[in-house]
Design a protein that fits this description.
By secondary structure, this protein is an all-alpha fold. The protein has 17 helices and no strands. Helix 9 (171-186) packs parallel to helix 12 (223-236) and helix 12 (223-236) packs antiparallel against helix 13. It is globular.
Length: 341
């Protein structure tokens, strides 16, 4: 306690416009106060989960990682002293926060560390005993596996997520369909990809308005999400007419602030052009997106699609100036033809 007191006194006294507050020590202090007052209300933490879900659309991943680290530690402390009838609620909050940490770490490019957090999140989900939380976390894990080039693992995770929905038309079921349709498209299995698109469309028609109209947090499933899935699938299956149509509708459906999602669909357009033989148009479009997107928005999801564009450029064009510039914008090695993120 004395050491904490000294750190706080020195840290706060030295604060200036350019200095950082002693955040971790202040959080320790808050924890001491909370311990004296009793367990924090669970509603406060459910509200914080919602806030993180909203922040994923706008905040740099590094900021999320920093804040989540502090909050996960605080929730762990709360669980230790929670009464027996409140433990399940704290387990649910813990599952959501550890999943957010896994997503933020992976999106920020810390792939190895993210896999450890995904394992923790899956364990936390199962500990919660809530099939909806299990389905949500496994589905999101599956999507990250897909974009990190672990396609078969993505299919396994998403299949289990879909099964946990128990035949109910839920947001998590629709999301699992996105993973499965996209993963099968990557493998070139058009029949399976189209089957999952149809299943998703049937589920989407049954989703409540509060889910399809939710555009603020990552917990919603608006029409833009289903159009994004179709854009991805048709692009990877080289279906030009369907792909162009889905891309145009997806871009029209997004809010202007959805910069990451818009960038990814624009990169679908670039990838489809390259795959259909128009290398110059595809590279030019990908270059423009890579130049315009803010560094904090260049997550591994965006980079993954951009590297797909590079990977599909024929070998005879790999040394072109435009391709080399695109690799530099993405911080990729010159001459690389098999890229990973």
């Amino acid at each position: 306690m004395d050491a904490l007191r000294r750190t706080l006194v020195m840290g706060v006294a030295g604060v200036s416009a350019a200095a950082a507050l002693p955040i971790r020590e202040l959080e320790q202090l808050r924890g001491i106060v909370d311990a004296a007052l009793g367990t924090s209300p669970l509603d406060d933490w459910h509200e914080r989960v919602w806030e993180y879900a909203a922040r994923f659309a706008t905040d740099p991943m590094q900021d999320l990682v920093r804040d989540l680290g502090t909050d996960i530690l605080a929730v762990h402390d709360q669980m230790q002293s929670a009464p027996a009838d409140r433990v399940s609620g704290w387990l649910a909050v813990n599952a959501h926060l550890t999943e957010f940490m896994a997503r933020a770490m992976g999106s920020a490019g810390h792939i190895h560390e993210a896999r450890g957090w995904w394992a923790t999140a899956r364990q936390a989900a199962h500990s919660s005993g809530d099939p909806d939380i299990i389905a949500k976390i496994l589905g999101n894990d599956g999507m990250h596996c897909l974009y990190h080039k672990r396609t078969q693992v993505a299919i396994s995770r998403a299949t289990t997520a879909f099964d946990h929905c128990q035949g109910r038309p839920t947001r998590n079921a629709a999301y699992a369909c996105s993973v499965l349709a996209q993963a099968h498209a990557v493998l070139g299995n058009a029949t399976a990809a189209h089957t999952w698109l149809r299943t998703q469309a049937e589920i989407f028609e049954q989703l409540p308005d509060q889910v399809t109209s939710e555009r603020v947090t990552v917990g919603g499933f608006p029409e833009a999400a289903i159009l994004h899935t179709r854009s991805y699938v048709f692009t990877h299956l080289r279906q030009e007419d369907e792909g162009r149509h889905a891309q145009e509708r997806a871009l029209a459906a997004y809010d202007p602030d959805d910069t990451r999602q818009i960038a990814m669909v624009e990169l679908h357009r670039a990838l489809l052009s390259v795959r259909l033989g128009d290398v110059a148009e595809g590279v030019e479009r990908a270059q423009r997106i890579a130049r315009e997107i803010a560094p904090g928005k260049l997550t591994t999801f965006v980079a993954s699609v951009a590297t797909d564009v590079v990977r599909n450029i024929p070998a005879k064009h790999q040394a072109r100036d435009g391709v080399l510039e695109l690799k530099e914008l993405l911080a990729l090695p010159r001459g690389a033809s098999s890229l990973s993120v």
